[in-house]
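Suppose a colleague, Dr. K., hands you the sequence of a protein chain of 141 amino acids and asks what its three-dimensional shape might be. Before reaching for any lab equipment, you can write down a predicted structure in token form. Begin with the sequence itself:
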Amino acid sequence: MSAHRNRFFLPVLAGLMLAGPALAQNTPSAPAPAPGTATTSTAPAQNTPTPPDADPSFLTGLRRVGVMAGEVVQCAADADKQAQISQAMELANQIAIHFGLRAAFNFVGALGYGSGRPFDKAGCTQALEGWKQIQAKYLNK
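The predicted structure, expressed as tokens, is then:
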């Protein structure tokens, strides 16, 4: 494993380990009703929207953006790689906040895949243009 991958995955793994205890906490349960009192059933609404991270096409889109961001990291000059990784992690944070950890995990996994797999460097300009559009739309850059 190269040093670049270690610098990328170690903070990601540390963040997941720190978030684990917060996610594992139990929510307090409602007190039991007093004997002899009537209770109402709280059934979930029938038209509850599904979260976006449950939609396979949404996750596929996140993976594509992650692979593109990884390719941008590969295309960047050595001096700019860390800045590109930081920008991708900023987007991963926004994804986690707005869509949940499952969506962020899919994005970051694809980012690692895109930055580690060999690809034709002729596609760098296309990846850079796509990444600039993503940044402009979601990171206000």
